[in-house]
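Structural prep section.
Before we set up the soaks we want a predicted structure of the protein with adenosine-5'-triphosphate in place, mainly to decide which crystallisation condition to try first. Input record follows.
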Amino acid sequence: MNETAFYLEHFDLKINGKNELDDITLTIKRGEITLIYGPRNSGKSLLLRSFIHLNEELFDKVEGTGRIEFNGIPVQELPRRELRQKIAYIDTSFLYAMDNFTIIEFFKFLKGKDFSFEDLTDEELDLLRLLGLQDILHLNPKISLHSLPSAEKLTLLIYSTLIRNPEIVIIDNVLDHLDDQSCVVVKNLLLDSKGDRTLLISSRFSHRLLDIADLLIHLKNGKILYAGNPENFVMTGS
Ligand SMILES: Nc1ncnc2c1ncn2[C@@H]1O[C@H](COP(=O)(O)OP(=O)(O)OP(=O)(O)O)[C@@H](O)[C@H]1O
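Run finished without errors. Recording the tokens verbatim:
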């Protein structure tokens, strides 16, 4: 299999005529964790959504120039359905959407309308335990997810992504909403479950996630200020 998951070359993005991403060239290797770090409005979400053509669904006028390849194929040549099967993207809007579900409705949404909790495989139960979510199975399945503590809801969102077993997992801004203790649990889980999976995580903070990143990309005003080894980034204080 191709060692490079994503390759971008001189990629520019204009939204409604305004330049938002500027000359992005980078390589994201398979099986690695990439941290995209930058302040509010630096372009993290626009960049991550470009990998799956999601900006086109949010904005009227999206113009991308340059190259984005997934597994060596330009993404515009890949059917969206295939991209979304292989690449799971979650952002904080999913958390708000989850409030509309009860526990059982959420599992049925993930696993099919005939789902019952006995259907969970050993692997899925292990993952629930690893994430500290096993108690959810003892709650009334008809309670709303809205009533769960937010850290638990976030972890459930990550669980729902991992059980689909996608090649690529993109976690846009979500981990910034976890408290320090839950963040450590999720980080360890992401490391443990990594395998061949490629992870892209965006954050407004570098320090909490730097230790699990293989590649750090520092974005500001739609431009890459740094792309490379996270340790060197810390050492130079860039
Ligand atoms: N809903 C929107 N309408 C118009 N322009 C937008 C919208 N969302 C983002 N943009 C433009 O895209 C730029 C980059 O936004 P993006 O959401 O990618 O930033 P971000 O780094 O993910 O920020 P945050 O940390 O706040 O999520 C913004 O400066 C803004 O100009």
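Observations: The pocket of adenosine-5'-triphosphate is lined by residues 15, 20, 38, 40-46, 173, 204 (CB under 6 Å).
Flagged for discussion at group meeting.
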